[in-house]
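Structure ticket #2291
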Amino acid sequence: MKLLASRPTIATVWARARKLPFGNRVFSKFVGRMAPYTGSIDPTVLELGDGHCVVQMRDRHAVRNHLRSIHAIALMNLGEVATGLAVMHAVDGRGRGIVTSLRMDYLKKARGTIVARCTTELPAAPGTYDLEVEGELRDEAGDQVARVFATWKVDLEG
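Resolution: structure written out below.
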């Protein structure tokens, strides 16, 4: 596909941004501009590798609910960006992907900075796959506040 060949991959943009001072913040702002709703939680990508992503969200008024904790949908947004970046970094120009299902288990009220972690593997063969990807969200004390389950439809080219 010419479209895929003409755009830099997530891996390429991440590799370039990491070389800059505050490169992870630059990359995170880039992600927020490409996906404005994702940018609404102001996520910061801490780690990104082949099928692996760690991203955090600061606790601030804009992501809070009436219970003085982080809103459920802000947590869902964080889970989606963690799973999506892990998948798309692994795809790395060999295809494309889109989330088709998203579910979250909320385990306790989320307060403070929340860190989402996701690790996944892609099939080696070309084809269309429904990848089941799981991530965990933890607070500053290390307590798990939520678990995200995402299905990503991925088309891998040969």
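Closing remark: The mean pLDDT is 93.
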